[in-house]
From TrEMBL:
The keyword Endoplasmic reticulum does not apply. This is Rieske domain-containing protein. PROSITE patterns: RIESKE. The keyword Metal-binding applies. Its cofactor is [2Fe-2S] cluster. Residues 62-162 form the Rieske domain. GO terms for molecular function: 2 iron, 2 sulfur cluster binding; metal ion binding. It comes from Dothidotthia symphoricarpi CBS 119687. The lineage of its organism: Eukaryota, Fungi, Dikarya, Ascomycota, Pezizomycotina. Coiled coil: none annotated. Keywords: 2Fe-2S, Iron, Iron-sulfur, Metal-binding.
Amino acid sequence: MSFLNPFTRPSRGGAAWFHTGPASSYPNILDDIRVGERRLCNNEHVPGCKVFHVPREDSSLATEIAIDDWKDPESGGNARDQVMVFQYKGKFIAINHECPHSSYPLSNGTPFDIEDFGVTLSSGISCPKHEWSFDLHTGKGDRGSYKLQVWEVQLRPSTSDGGEEREEMDVWVRRKQRIG
Ligand code: FES
């Protein structure tokens, strides 16, 4: 007889981890211009973030959306059930693509350091629509009780088709679990 251990059981449905590509496919954003802007990465100019549509019922069916579709966010579509993944100053971040205030796509937002008397405490993103800001790690907004959903990120060794580990790391993401 075998028993499933609830602590090791892989999460399924909307809480499943999904692969968002090798770490080396993300430019390391060191500036404070729009996240989705193209930057040099592996001798190519690529968008500063990747955006995925992630079905609530099954995250493993996540699909990448072309970032260029968001250059003109007024032109249609919405950012619901989408996550944007990017690297800011060496740290991988995954957050809801839609601004919690009024759903503007945050790939148009600008990242910044949250500082106090010259000491960097955290990092944030500023939404250009109404200039509200959100902490990229806690999701806390600078106005009202609006909170940005922050997703979990893991870096895992890449494996070849034969299952062998390589030196490269892959970026995996999932919706944050609610506890209790
Ligand atoms: S939509 Fe982002 S601050 Fe209003």
